[in-house]
């Protein structure tokens, strides 16, 4: 009797299980969250990005929602905790996303106006008489604007190529140092509320594309007193653990968007121009080699300035590894 009851319970449970609606497989998603780097205000970015994300949503068959972070660290953490799935990062913040947020480079932007890449710059108000030599006197009389700590052009490049080689710490060099996004720094210098700040050529071109009286007035009011070596275009990062089928859909969309001679492709290229890129190019984590080299070079210069032998050895080892990876890639290219 007990055996019959047990068998009956097993059958009932099996029937109940079959009658339940099918559950989503682990990792299945109903929407994709796309993070946008915060070089400008959300309002400026939203207007430019909405058409692109709408087209992406149609192509992959599910909603694509924008995630606008207030700073680069927020975007990295959002991917780390799976609040976002894919996004456009700067080189430095993208490197951190690869290191800490289980991300990988799968694409990169392409300069729509000329050679690939952009330059970090330092801008001052035009007619102020402020020169690079005066900035580097470090007499603590100048209010200076830096970018986000994870910004390649706003912080890493000027530290690597300008300040660190001269043993300059901005906090000890200037009267005040504030951190803000490129748009805010550009407006502040243009308005005269900030004497000098870091920026980049792409951000200044983006300001020009706004074609508003304020944008024109701002650009007319500033001048560049320093430029960095050319920096690689920005990477697009995707989570490694994203469903492979969804990854394929995203990649198929990204690498076909704006490609071809059709009216539709022309419409798409106009949308891409608003976010300052030509059709996206394939890339992988090797895209980050130059920013890793900048980072290690800056660390080496700082370690030497402090006389820290252990830090010097660590930075030199990092540079050696980067050069080894670059040589291997160049070897692959010559052998193909």
State the distance separating the first and last CA atoms: 75 Å
> What is the overall pLDDT average?
89
Structural class: alpha/beta
The tally of helices reads: 14
The largest sheet, given as strand count, sense and whether it forms a barrel, is: 6 strands, mixed
Radius of gyration: 24 Å
Record the SSE blueprint.
Blueprint: H1 2-19, E1 32-36, H2 42-60, E2 64-68, H3 72-80, E3 86-88, H4 91-100, E4 103-108, E5 120-125, H5 132-135, E6 143-146, H6 152-163, H7 170-173, E7 176-179, H8 182-191, E8 196-200, H9 201-210, H10 213-220, E9 222-227, E10 235-239, H11 244-256, H12 263-274, E11 281-282, H13 289-306, H14 309-335
Parallel strand pairs: 1-2, 1-3, 6-7, 6-8
Antiparallel strand pairs: 3-10, 4-10, 4-11, 5-8, 5-9
Model description:
This protein has 336 residues and is α/β, with parallel strands linked by helices. Helices cover 52% and strands 15% of the residues. The chain has a 6-stranded mixed beta sheet, sandwiched between helices. Strands 7-6-8-5-9 form a 5-stranded mixed beta sheet. It is globular, with a radius of gyration of 24 Å. The termini are far apart. The relative contact order is 0.15. The model is unreliable at 1-26 (pLDDT under 50).
Can you describe this structure in just a few lines?
This protein has 336 residues and is α/β, with parallel strands linked by helices.
Key traits:
single chain; 336 residues; alpha/beta; six-stranded mixed beta sheet; five-stranded mixed beta sheet; globular; disordered N terminus
């Amino acid at each position: 009797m007990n055996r019959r009851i047990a068998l009956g319970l097993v059958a009932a449970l099996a029937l109940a299980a079959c009658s339940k609606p099918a559950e989503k497989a682990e990792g299945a998603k109903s929407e994709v969250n796309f993070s946008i780097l915060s070089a400008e205000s959300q309002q400026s970015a939203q207007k430019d990005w909405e058409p692109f994300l709408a087209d992406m949503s149609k192509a992959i068959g599910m909603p694509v929602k924008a995630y606008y972070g207030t700073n680069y660290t927020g975007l990295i953490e959002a991917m780390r905790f799976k609040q976002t799935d894919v996004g456009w990062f700067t080189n430095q913040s993208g490197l951190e996303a690869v290191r800490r947020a289980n991300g990988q480079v799968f694409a990169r932007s392409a300069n729509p106006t000329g050679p690939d890449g952009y330059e970090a710059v330092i801008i001052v108000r035009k007619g102020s008489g402020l020169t690079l030599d005066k900035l580097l006197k470090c007499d603590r009389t100048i209010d200076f604007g830096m970018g986000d700590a994870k910004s390649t052009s706003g912080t890493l490049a000027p530290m690597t190529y300008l300040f660190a080689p001269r043993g300059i710490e901005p906090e000890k060099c200037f009267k005040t140092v504030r951190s803000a996004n490129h748009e805010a720094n550009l407006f502040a210098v243009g308005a005269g509320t900030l004497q000098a700040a870091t920026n980049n050529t792409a951000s200044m071109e983006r300001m020009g594309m706004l074609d508003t009286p304020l944008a024109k007035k701002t650009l007319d009011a500033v001048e560049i007193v320093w430029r960095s070596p050319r920096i690689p275009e920005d990477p697009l990062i995707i989570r490694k653990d994203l469903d492979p089928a969804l990854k394929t859909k995203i990649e198929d969309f990204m690498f076909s968007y704006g490609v071809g001679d059709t009216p539709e492709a022309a419409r798409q290229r106009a949308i891409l121009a608003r976010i300052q890129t030509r059709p996206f190019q394939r890339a992988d984590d090797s895209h980050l080699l130059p920013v890793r080299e900048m980072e290690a070079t800056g660390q080496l210069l700082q370690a030497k300035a402090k006389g820290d032998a252990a830090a010097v050895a660590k930075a030199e080892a990092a540079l050696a590894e980067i050069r080894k990876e670059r040589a291997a890639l160049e070897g692959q290219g010559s052998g193909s």
